[in-house]
């Protein structure tokens, strides 16, 4: 029994500027639509968060901390 699997192509894009990323996605979708294939997306991926915990005053108040996020 030979089952047919549709071909899939996944493309991951990263950019610092959201406008450039949107333009690239729209160009890729336009090319895919010209070939007659079906395009799904773009699907935004979750952003990465880095949280750093820093003591406010070392050696004195251990419970007093600040949190910084990038």
Summarize the structure.
The protein has 70 residues and is of the alpha+beta class.
Layout of secondary structure:
Blueprint (H helix, E strand, L loop, with lengths): L17 H17 L16 E7 L3 E9 L1
Antiparallel strand pairs: 1-2
Describe this structure in words.
The protein has 70 residues and is of the alpha+beta class. It has one domain (18-69). It has one helix at 18-34; strands at 51-57, 61-69. A two-stranded antiparallel sheet has the order 1-2. Strand 1 (51-57) and strand 2 (61-69) form a beta hairpin. The radius of gyration is 23 Å and the shape is elongated.
Question: How many domains make up the 3D coordinates?
Answer: 1
The biggest beta sheet is recorded as: 2 strands, antiparallel
Shape: elongated
Cα gyration radius (Å): 23 Å
End-to-end C-alpha gap: 52 Å
Q: What quaternary form is this?
A: single chain
Strand content: 15-25%
The residue ranges in which pLDDT falls below 50 over 5 or more consecutive positions are none
Helix content: 10-25%
Provide the structure class.
alpha+beta
Return the string of H and E elements.
Answer: HEE
According to DSSP, the number of beta strands is 2
Mean pLDDT: 84
Number of helices: 1
> If strands are numbered along the chain, what order do they take across the biggest sheet?
1-2
